């Protein structure tokens, strides 16, 4: 079974087909609630296999009974059209979470480049599944990060009509382990998670994701900030309290069972602590043998479980030393009592602190950015 690339709900046996002919479109309240902006739809049929008929197949080219026009398959839950032959593949659906300015957008920008190399290591190629994914990646993420060498502007709230976060980036990884694999990335506006999430139909994809990556900016921790004062430029945009975001995220996930990756972003800033005179933190960071000081490399094909477990343990103890142990506790003992399968990571998308809003001179030398993705892909199939 695979997932809808928009709402992330499992595509079960029910199929839905929507008119693409001359029929008038009318308001779609369900689609609107899940999308977070007005949606319309045309006549749609829902078909389920009759009980006790394992040989049942959905209709191949259904025709609209009103206008005789063609119909295309859409998601039975959110009514978005599914990419062609979507159900034949396996989609790993990743939702990014985190306060404002934790580095989500820049991470996505760099990730797509690295996935190109990842695909190469697996002797396949990376592709955008639809024009909208390519458009939003190139226009928002790539153009600002790579072409202008600037930094992506703060992300607008999801209720703005032209907000790009709603458009998931749907990537095809080709055939991996004998199966067509897809990777879907959904960004979110940090404000949406910093504020209370009451009527959050448009954020319900968190509950259904394969993996939620919770980004956490270690430079927001006062102890790190104090020691780094002279070494890293002041951040222009500052985000909210990660503990509040995590709490809101837990509420959104509710009884959902995504796996949770906790990602210390901008890890290059932590690595510069080695330049700070003898403090406890600088000693911790100066341990050259630590997993968080080396990158297993982009060309490594699969996820390395023993390296991953070592890193996981190091990050948990680092968080304790930063007096951010409550983050670990909330994840291990959530109020809801529903602990998620979780793992801790570090990434640096840019590889070095930025100079104002420009990238530093050496360009981009990202660090461990693919680890969370390898971990996410591995659980959906053995690769
Ligand atoms: N040092 C460093 N800074 C980063 C990195 N990634 C992002 N940043 C900084 O964090 C700011 C916010 O990043 P952005 O991706 O827009 O955050 P978002 O609001 O979570 O999408 C950027 O303007 C950068 O200055 C990184 O890998 N290293
Ligand atoms: Mg953003
Ligand atoms: Zn019709
Ligand atoms: Zn859907």
Describe this protein's structure:
With 383 residues, the protein is of the alpha/beta class. The chain has 2 domains: 1-83, no CATH class; 89-380, Rossmann fold. 30% of the residues lie in helices and 16% in strands. The protein has 12 helices and 12 strands. The strands form 3 sheets. It has a 7-stranded mixed sheet with strand order 7-8-9-6-10-11-12. The longest helix has 18 residues, at 104-121. The model is unreliable at 157-161 (pLDDT under 50). The site of guanosine-5'-diphosphate has 22 residues, from helix 2 and helix 8.
Layout of secondary structure:
Elements: E1 15-19, E2 26-27, H1 29-35, E3 40-41, E4 44-47, E5 71-74, E6 90-97, H2 104-121, E7 127-128, H3 131-147, E8 169-176, E9 179-186, H4 190-194, H5 205-208, E10 211-216, H6 222-228, H7 242-253, E11 259-264, H8 267-271, H9 280-285, H10 305-321, H11 325-332, E12 342-346, H12 371-380
Parallel strand pairs: 6-9, 6-10, 10-11, 11-12
Antiparallel strand pairs: 1-4, 1-5, 2-3, 7-8, 8-9
Helix pairs in contact: 2-3, 10-11
Magnesium ion binds at residues 104-105, 155, 187.
């Amino acid at each position: 079974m695979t997932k809808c690339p928009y709402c992330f709900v499992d595509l079960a046996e029910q199929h839905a087909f929507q008119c693409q002919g001359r029929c008038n479109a009318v308001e779609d309240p369900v689609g609107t609630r899940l999308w977070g902006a007005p949606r319309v739809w045309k006549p749609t049929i829902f078909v389920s296999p009759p009980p006790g008929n394992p040989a049942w197949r959905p209709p191949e080219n259904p025709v609209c009974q009103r206008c005789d026009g063609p119909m295309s398959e859409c998601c039975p839950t959110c009514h978005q059209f599914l990419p062609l032959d979507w159900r034949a593949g396996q989609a790993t659906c990743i939702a990014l979470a985190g306060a404002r300015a934790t580095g989500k957008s820049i991470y996505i920008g760099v990730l797509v480049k690295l996935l190109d190399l990842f695909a190469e290591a697996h002797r396949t190629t990376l592709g955008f599944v639809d024009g909208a994914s390519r458009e939003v990646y190139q226009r928002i993420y790539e153009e600002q990060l790579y072409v202008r060498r600037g930094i992506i502007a703060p992300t607008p709230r999801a209720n703005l009509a032209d907000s790009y976060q709603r458009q998931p980036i749907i990537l095809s990884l080709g055939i991996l382990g004998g199966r067509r694999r897809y990777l879907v990335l959904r960004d979110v506006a940090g404000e949406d998670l910093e504020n209370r999430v009451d009527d959050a139909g448009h954020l319900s994809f968190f509950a259904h994701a394969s993996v939620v990556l919770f980004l956490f900016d270690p430079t927001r921790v006062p102890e790190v900030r104090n020691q780094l004062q002279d070494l890293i430029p002041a951040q222009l945009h500052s985000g909210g309290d990660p503990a509040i975001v995590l709490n809101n995220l837990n509420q959104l996930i509710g009884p959902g069972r995504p796996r949770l990756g906790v990602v210390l972003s901008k890890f290059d800033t932590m690595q510069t602590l080695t330049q700070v005179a003898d403090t406890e933190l600088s000693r911790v960071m100066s341990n050259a043998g630590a997993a968080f000081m080396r990158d297993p490399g982009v060309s490594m094909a699969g996820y390395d479980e023993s390296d991953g477990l070592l890193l996981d343990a190091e990050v948990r103890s680092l968080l304790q030393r930063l007096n951010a142990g409550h983050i670990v506790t909330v994840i291990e003992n959530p109020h809801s009592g529903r602990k998620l399968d979780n793992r801790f990571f570090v990434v640096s998308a840019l590889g070095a602190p930025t100079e104002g809003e420009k990238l530093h001179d050496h360009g981009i030398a990202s660090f461990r950015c693919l680890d969370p993705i390898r971990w996410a892909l591995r659980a959906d199939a053995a690769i």
